[in-house]
Structure formats: C-alpha cells, structure tokens
Amino acid sequence: MQGEGPAICLGDDVDTDQIIAGRYLRTKDRSVWAAHLLEDLDPTLAGRARGAVIVAGRNMGCGSSREQAVVALREAGVVAVVAPSFARIFFRNAINVGLPVIEAPVLPCTDGVHVAFDLDARWVEVDGERYPVRPLLEKMVAILRAGGLVPYWRSGR
Fold first, then answer.
1. How many beta carbons lie within 10 A of that of residue 5, not counting itself?
2. Domain ranges, residue 89
3. pLDDT tens for the chain, residues 1 to 157
4. Burial class (CB within 10 angstroms; exposed 0-12, middle 13-18, buried 19+) of 29
5. Can you point out the beta strands (E) in the chain?
6. Into how many domains does the chain fold?
7. Do the Cβ atoms of 73 and 52 come closer than 8 Å?
8. Using CA atoms, how far apart are residues 18 and 112, in angstroms rounded to an integer?
C-alpha cells in the first residue's frame, strides 16, 4: 500500500479533542466534522487536509477514545498519519476506518514538504529523507486495503 501528499506538521500529544472538538459532535454529519478538523490548533488546517499526510509528534491521538477523530481525518481527505507513536485506541480506530497510520521516527518537518510512503516496503519519506516504519500485521494491511473493517468483513475475508 502506497500513498503521498504534502505534509501538515503537528507537534506531540495531539489529542482527539483537538482533532475534532466535542462541540461539533452533536451532529452525525461527517462533513461538519471534516470542516472543523483541527481548527483549535489552526483554523486553516481543514482547508488544507484533502490529499495531505499528517506528520505528528509522539503520542498522536491521545485523549478520549472517540472514533469520530479518525473519521474526521478520513472525511477531510487526509491520506495517512505518520508519527513516532500513537495512542493505541486511536491507532486501532484508524485501521478500522481505513486510515493508514504509520509509526516511524520522523524528525520535525515543514508544512508542505512532500511525504511518500510504502507500507509493503516499510518506509516513509519526508522531504527526501527516508525512514523505516514499524510493520503492520498482515491483517491490518488487508483491512486498510479494503477501506476499513466493515468493507473488509463484507468482502467475505
């Protein structure tokens, strides 16, 4: 599985309430979640998310276990999230909704630099610098390829 896009760089400990604030969860309209993605960190991020790769610091997705955070990222068009470590529930929620999460020791980046990844070859490249990625279980890659857990099960696997 491969992908690429411009980087949106975030820091350490980005929690699920920063990804999509609780005040927007009164609706189940996913387009509302996408429109308000990360707005408390930077109100312009939602408009730059389509086709982008989030490059975050340690402990990405900490906080509450809300699945809406990864759904908001996917609905906004984020291609993948790269970080040296993830909160475990966020990580599994991302796999379940078909959003690639890539654990790699990426150094700080600059917004807009080119990011590419190849999960099969186990690398991510940020601004021309290649980093090894922690391999995913084969079943997790199969779930990502199917577009998430529900499409994976519907396909009869």
1. 19
2. 2-154
3. 999 999 999 999 999 999 999 999 999 999 999 999 999 999 999 999 999 999 999 999 999 888 999 999 999 999 999 999 999 999 999 999 999 999 999 877 899 999 999 999 999 999 999 999 999 999 999 999 999 999 999 988 7
4. exposed
5. 2-9, 53-55, 80-83, 101-103, 114-118, 123-126, 129-132
6. 1
7. no
8. 21
Tokens of 16: 């699920």
Tokens of 36: 């308000």
Q: What CATH number should be reported for the domain holding residue 36?
A: 3.20.19.10
Both tokens of 152, joined, read 């994976």
| Residue 69: count of CB within 10 angstroms of its CB | 29
DSSP code string of 42-87: -TTHHHH-TT-EEE--TTBTBSS--THHHHHHHHTT--EEEES-B-
